[in-house]
Amino acid sequence: MNKFSGLHLTVEHDGELSSLSKPSEPTIALLHCYDLIDDFLDSLNISFETFCQEFVGSWMFGYINALKQVGVRTVLFCISARVDQPSRFTHVPTGALICVLPASGIYHTYRAVRRNSLNLYGASDVQSFKDIEDDSTIRRSLLTPIKDLVKSLGTYLSTPLSLLARELRRENCQAILCQEYEYARFDSCVVLGKMMRLPVFATFQGGDRTQSFLEVLPRRLAFRACTGAIVATQTEIRRIQSRYGIPSHKIARIFNPVDVTTWQASDRTEARAALGIPLNAKVVAWHGRVEIERKGLDILLEAWQQICGERPDQDLRLLMVGTGSDAEQLRQRLDTMQLKGVLWLNEFVSDRKIIQCYLSAANVYTLPSRQEGFPVAPIEAMSCGLPVVAADAPGVIDIFEGGEASGGLVVSRGEATSLASALGRVLDNEVWGRKLGQHAKYHAESCFSPEVIGKQLRDVFMNQRIHKNR
Question: Which SUPFAM superfamilies is this protein grouped with (predicted)?
């Protein structure tokens, strides 16, 4: 039974579908790294319907759009526990086909066993709260390796390889692209690619370590056997060369694409009027997924507290757009810290016009993240003419290789004082901030457009050889 209501276009059975003709254009298969696409959607609190109808804020649809610009078709393959047979949907913003496959039968057994085993890790009814509190740190440290091992096993088991092979043939895919190489699905796809004689590639979107020891040997073999890796950052290139011995000719340094033509600032006066922000206010913006540790939101709030404390007579605003797994924790921090001028839209926003309104109202954009793969959010802000103050998470330094000429200031991760100082410099010098914003806009348009990135990706996938873009 298909549980994705309202969107289902075609449910396939064992026979060939006469309604589907094989495409004439070259076709790439794109696979996400999660056990299930359900996990990703649940973390954002959005439905699959929203994903198909509206979702664009992801590297995967950036890739799909870039490849479409250069005549390459992409099929996004997703694994789900909510379908029991292959099901096809259309991603409305890009027109891409989404093929949803049921998780393998053994994976459902694994999930049931894992779910029933959770009570083994809980405290007994007779334990006191103090006992639980004293034991919590030890319990977490002991259970973390077990949980990581279970997670690795789940990703291996979730991929229905025989069914995926059938659908790859049906869609006439000429290559496989995995979202991340530091996830178990990459290992499985390399094995499948060898069996089907298909080239297999993987990208770097932030995963920079194996999940558990179970993946160590398969990952080394997968790197040896894969066709290539697409990596935007020099730091990550050095890491995989050192750890896995992957030769340079297998690595393509390609940035994530951003549709810069759709990220254009509107009139600041109108944007601020819509948000109820005075024209004389000084505004910092951030948007993304609310994950406090990874995204450095604790650092941002601490920096904002310093900025406001040093400028008590100024009208200062911090605009935050997005939600995520740590939304409630962020709300509690905001309530505790009693920060002034914070306007937080705590919801998943798929309408770019809404995000653009917030960006258009700002003087500067910030990215305080501790960990990133290759962040798209600051490039969206740059396309809107905003200067960027960012922490030196992986990928950030590569975006701003030209320093201020690239439109950004880069500070050390985890240092609220450095972040506050750099943001303060931009807020206090509006003329300089506008100049930085002009540099940022030019840099975004010349380096990250879908046409530029699409050509580089097409060369990699279709020629099955690696060309460095720098």
Answer: UDP-Glycosyltransferase/glycogen phosphorylase (SSF53756)
Q: How far is CA 136 from CA 126, 143, 145, 352, 382, in A?
A: 16, 10, 15, 42, 44
Question: 10-107+155-253 sits in which CATH class?
Answer: alpha beta
Nearest to 369 by CA among 286, 291, 295, 284: 295
pTM beyond 0.70: the answer is yes
Q: Are 244 and 219 in contact (CB under 8 A)?
A: yes
Measure the CA–CA gap between 462 and 247, rounded to whole angstroms: 20
Q: Tell me the C-alpha to C-alpha distance, in Å, between residue 461 and each of 204, 433, 458.
A: 16, 40, 5
User: 88 φ, ψ to 5°?
Assistant: -115, 140
Residues 295 and 288: beta-carbon distance below 8 Å: yes
Q: Name residue 462's amino acid.
A: M
* Cβ(377)–Cβ(359) below 8 Å: no
Amino acid occupying residue 386: L
Place of tokens 């179970």: 214
Asked if the domains at 10-107+155-253 and 260-448 fall in one CATH topology, the answer is yes
Cα separation values, 209 from 148, 167, 246, 293, 372, Å: 12, 30, 15, 17, 13
Phi, psi torsion values for 165, nearest 5 degrees: -60, -45
The size of the chain, in residues, is: 470
The answer to whether the Cα torsion of 336, 341, 342, 343 is positive or negative is positive
Residue 377: how many other CB atoms lie within 10 Å: 25
Could you identify the residue written with the tokens 């009814």?
Answer: 125
Question: May I ask the CATH architecture of the domain 260-448?
Answer: 3-Layer(aba) Sandwich (3.40)
Q: Between the CA of residue 335 and those of 284, 312, 338, 346, what are the distances in Å?
A: 20, 20, 5, 14
Kindly give the confidence (pLDDT) of every residue in the chain, 470 residues in length, as a single tens digit, with 9 standing for 90 and above.
455 654 544 444 443 443 344 557 899 999 999 899 998 898 888 899 999 999 887 789 999 999 999 999 999 999 999 999 999 999 999 999 999 999 988 887 887 777 665 443 343 333 433 343 444 444 445 567 777 888 888 889 999 999 999 999 999 999 999 999 999 999 999 999 999 999 999 999 888 889 889 999 999 999 999 999 999 989 899 999 999 999 999 999 999 898 888 899 999 999 999 999 999 999 999 999 999 999 999 999 999 999 999 999 999 999 999 999 999 999 999 999 999 999 999 998 888 899 999 999 999 999 999 998 788 899 999 999 999 999 999 889 899 988 899 999 999 999 999 999 999 999 999 999 999 999 999 999 988 999 999 999 999 988 764 444 44
Q: Where are the domains of the chain?
A: 10-107+155-253, 260-448
Single-letter amino acid, residue 224? R
Q: How far apart are the C-alpha atoms of 457 and 63, rounded to whole Å? A: 8
